[in-house]
Structures are given as C-alpha cells and as structure tokens.
Design goal:
Elements (H helix, E strand, L loop, with lengths): L4 H12 L9 H13 L4 E3 L5 E5 L3 E11 L4 E7 L5 E6 L11 E5 L5 E8 L4 H4 L13 E5 L6 H6 L7 E4 L4 E2 L4 E4 L2 H19 L6 E8 L15 E7 L2 E3 L10 E6 L7 H14 L3 E5 L6 H7 L5 E10 L5 E4 H16 L2
Helix pairs in contact: 1-5, 5-8
The structure holds zinc ion.
C-alpha cells in the first residue's frame, strides 16, 4: 500500500502552524473545509462549528464515523496586571511547566495578533537565583511578557488586548532527518493529517469504502465536549487520537496504538479486536494500550449517551501535552490501519 506521506506531512505542518485553541478554531476549520472540497467532498457544519464530509460506501446502512480533533490546548487572558504583563487561564489540561519559555500569539477581539512569551514572574536567575527554580509554576506565578512597550495595564488596553482574548502557544514543528516529528499539538493534528491521507488514498485509487463513512473534525475535544451533531445513522465511531508513550505504557512512536481502555471507559472488545486482526493480517505494527488519564472523541461520545460502537487508534506520541514527538513510521502505520478499516467488513 502506497500512502502519500509527502502530502500527509505537508498538511500536518501547515495545520500545526494555524493556531486553533479550543473555542477559537474557525481558521483551521476553514482550511480543512477547503481540503474536503479539494477532493470534491461536500462539507457539512454543525451548529458548534465542527465539520464533516461523507464518502458513500459500497453497502447501505451501518454507517461509520471517523473523527479527529482540530482544537488544541491554549489559554485566554485572565487578567491584565498593573505592570503590563498578562495572567492566563488554561484551555485544556497541561502543566504550566510544559509551556514555560514558549512564545505565544495573543489575538484581540478585533483580530489583531501580538506576540509574547510565557515566563515565570521571577524568571531571571541573575536577579532571583534563590527562588527561580523553587517556585511552582501555576496560573498565579506565570505571566505573559508582551513584545510591545507596555508598562501598565492601560498600555496593554491601548493595544486592544482585553480579558478573554485567546492565547496560542507556538507549536514549533520540526521533522528530523531520521523521521522524528517534534511539535506541540501532534495531538491531534497529526491524526487530522492521517484522516485526510486516508481520504486521499481512497480518491487517488478510486476506492469505495465498505460502508458510508463520515469524516468528522471535532473542535472541543480537549475540553471534553465529545462528539455532537453527528449524522443520525452512525453505527460506529473510530476516533483517531494519539497513543501515549511513556513508563507503564506499550505505545511506541513507530507503531499505531489500539486503545483497550482509557480513563473514561473500556472500549468495545469486538470492535477493538477487529482492528487488531486487521493490523495482524496486514502486518501493520501495532500496540494495544491502556491510557491512564485520557478521553477520546469516541469515549466522550459514549458518556454523552450516543448509541454507536466505538474504538480509538493513533500513532504513539511521546511527552503528550508537552513538546510532543512521534515518528513518520507511526504516522504511516496509522494511515494504513485507517485505510484497512475503511475497506473492511
Ligand atoms: Zn487528543
């Protein structure tokens, strides 16, 4: 099977560079709308701003839905401090240590974008050598230094920056010569790229999936909203979301993880087993894993009471919700298993 890795990585890098913190995903969604349209797939939009495109299947009924989320971690301006720095409130679950020193984009209500950096209040070791490494990084102790001449709250307000403005973290995507992909927000933009690579494979090879399949881009996963506004006839949901690589986990950056259980729910054994069998039959490197603190579009949908079967697969990713890393092989294996699933009974 020849999947188009160049296309996949180009799209991945492009969307990694579009800021899309939960609550402000419209620019990325519009970009992906164009991607669907480039394949001649009509795009539907939910009231909440998620989108999906549908490819008709060989057989009627038992429709499938494949999801990946475009929303990422981020923050909003919580408070403008008297010294012209910003306090933040987090969007999604991450530790403030993981974004210390990161460059950010502050988007005003009117759409103007300023840059800045997340720093501890006491950042300079020359000045605070006694405390700099001891102070816990929290919403109270970190701040944003805006790259403008601001010394007071009023200076910041004069720029048009206000409480509630979205703050996005620089993703910093890099692909190394030996195939490692490093970036923030590989969760879940790597999987979004995998989804489109699967679509492209079907289109390029003039293949019809076994069942009518809806390809869904969700936009509030990191907050735990799950899936909403999905097509009525959806019989099963396959979430594409990252496998967590680390101590006590089987996931691997070069393999595709098939999730047995996350912190919300065990996944259906029959559906998981179909995916394992496909991986084995087709020689696709895979790991079955149990995720410790984790929910996916599929497991969250189950908690909402959606009556559909559900599973979750994704490439293994190291240091999730920090500066993440995966490998091109893991991306390729994820695409292959997705395509096998789309074509299988
Ligand atoms: Zn995710």
């Amino acid at each position: 099977m020849n999947v188009d890795l160049k296309y996949t990585l180009d799209l991945m890098l492009e969307i990694l560079k579009i800021n899309s913190p939960g609550g402000d995903t419209s620019e990325a969604i519009e970009r992906l709308e164009k991607e669907f349209e480039s394949f001649g797939i009509e795009v539907k939009r939910t009231n909440k701003g998620a989108i999906y495109g549908t490819i008709k299947g060989e057989l009627e009924g038992e429709e499938r839905l494949v999801s990946a989320h475009i929303d990422t971690l981020g923050a909003v301006v919580k408070e403008i401090k008297a010294n012209g720095r910003l306090k933040l409130s987090n969007i999604g679950g991450f530790s403030w240590n993981s974004v210390e020193g990161e460059n950010v984009y502050i988007k005003t209500r009117k759409g103007k974008v300023y840059t800045g950096t997340i720093l501890p209040e006491k950042a300079s070791i020359h000045i605070y050598s006694d405390v700099v490494s001891q102070v816990e990084r929290t919403e109270e102790t970190i701040e944003v230094r805006i790259d403008e001449d601001v010394r007071s709250e009023q200076d910041v307000k004069d720029l048009g920056i206000a409480v509630g403005d979205f703050v996005s973290f620089e993703a910093r995507p890099i692909i190394t010569e030996n195939g490692y992909i490093k970036s923030r927000f590989l969760d879940d933009k790597a999987c979004v790229a995998v989804m489109f690579a699967g679509i492209k494979y079907l289109i390029d090879n003039k293949l019809t999936p076994k069942r009518t399949t809806h390809f869904f881009i969700s936009n509030y996963e990191e907050i735990g909203h799950g899936l909403y506004g999905i097509p009525e006839n959806t019989a099963e949901i396959l979430a594409l979301d990252i496998g967590t690589v680390g101590q006590g986990h089987t996931s691997d950056e070069k393999s595709v993880t098939i999730v047995a259980k996350d912190s919300r729910t065990p996944y259906d054994f029959g559906f998981r087993n179909r995916l394992v069998q496909l991986a084995e039959e087709k020689g696709i490197p895979y790991r079955v894993d149990v995720h410790y603190r984790y929910g996916s579009d599929a497991s969250l949908a189950m908690l909402q009471g959606v009556d559909a079967n559900f599973a979750c697969i994704g490439m293994g990713v190291d240091a999730t919700h920090h500066y993440e890393r995966t490998h091109i092989d893991g991306v390729e294996n994820n695409i292959k298993l997705l395509i096998e699933y789309l074509m299988a009974d």
